[in-house]
Structures are given as structure tokens and as C-alpha cells.
Fold:
Amino acid sequence: ETGVTQTPRHLVMGMTNKKSLKCEQHLGHNAMYWYKQSAKKPLELMFVYNFKEQTENNSVPSRFSPECPNSSHLFLHLHTLQPEDSALYLCASSQSTAVEAFFGQGTRLTVV
Amino acid sequence: GENVEQHPSTLSVQEGDSAVIKCTYSDSASNYFPWYKQELGKRPQLIIDIRSNVGEKKDQRIAVTLNKTAKHFSLHITETQPEDSAVYFCAAYMNSGGYQKVTFGTGTKLQVIP
Structure:
């Protein structure tokens, strides 16, 4: 296993629901990322945390709210999502001074 | 911001043949270029990378070349095997304010036909 664990693996939620995605890394990395992977689109970087501080927010709608309580855990809180938000959400981690990113298995999100 | 274009979007080759995937980037400040392989239903995994001070890097059947002047880099897979079938992503990283900014290509679906 890669050391980056995401839960749940699959999630179906209604547009009025509130849910959270969880990511945990056991690699001692100090940077964590959320990516969105939609069909036929490039991987989109959503958020970056370095040493628990958010350093990137690539124009992501406010219905996505990240939280990084410590350098090993990363959450993505979801509320009032739209069907077009259905995608694979990938978490990754790396050493901020290096660049190789290790990805989790992803959470397949379906908004109905 | 950085823009990464990747071609082709799909590629079919016969087993044993070579496959080449190309990416171009726009920002000359980008200095690290990894390639990720994503098999169906699995996570992307790094397969090879190259830094801007190197022109070519090889690891067994996989090689990457970088042309900084033209701002393009390519993935070369020789003697392809069915297990090479996957989606391949290129990426361009740059250091901005002490942190890494990354832009991914759109991916290439490679099919190796036995």
C-alpha cells in the first residue's frame, strides 16, 4: 500500500446533503493535496496544504471546504453539491521540498 | 498560469512496438516534469520524472526526454506489453513562493494490443 489512505472509496449524496472525505498519510510528508479527476478532463488541483497551512485554492467553489488539522490528515467537507461535481477525488501527499506526489486510491463521488 | 497540453489523447500500439506521448508547457519557470501511470480503477503512480537540468532519463523500457528551449517533454515506452495499457499523465511543476505549483496534462489512454 502506498501509505495514503482515503475514505470512503465510494460516496453517493444528494444535493442537499453534507458529507466529508477523509485522507490520511503515513509517509511523514508535510504537504497534502486534493485533486478532482473528471472524465475527459485533466487532473485539477483543488487545494494544497503545506505544514497545515493552505497555500493554494485554485478557484474552487465554496461548497468545497478543506480542513487540515495536522500534517497527516486532510478532509474535504462537501455541502450543497451539484451533479457536475460528480468525479473521482484524489488526495496526495509529498515532502514540500521534493515533488514526488503519492496518491491515495480516491473517492468516487456521485451527486444525485 | 502554466498550461500543459498532452497528445495524443488515445494511442493504440501492437505489443512489442514503441509508444510516444508528448507534452508541451508554457511557463519556462517549470522545472520538474513527472509522468504518472493510472491503471483502470487505480491511483496515479509516478513512473519516471525529469528535472530541467537534464535532457534525457531512462529506466529500463521507459525514457523521458526534455527540450527546454521548445518547452516540450516526451515519454517513450519501448517493447510495449499488455500491462502497459493505462492512462498516462504528464505534469509540470514550478516553485512559487517556496511551494510547488503543478499543472497536469489531459492524459493519454494507451492500449497495447496483444
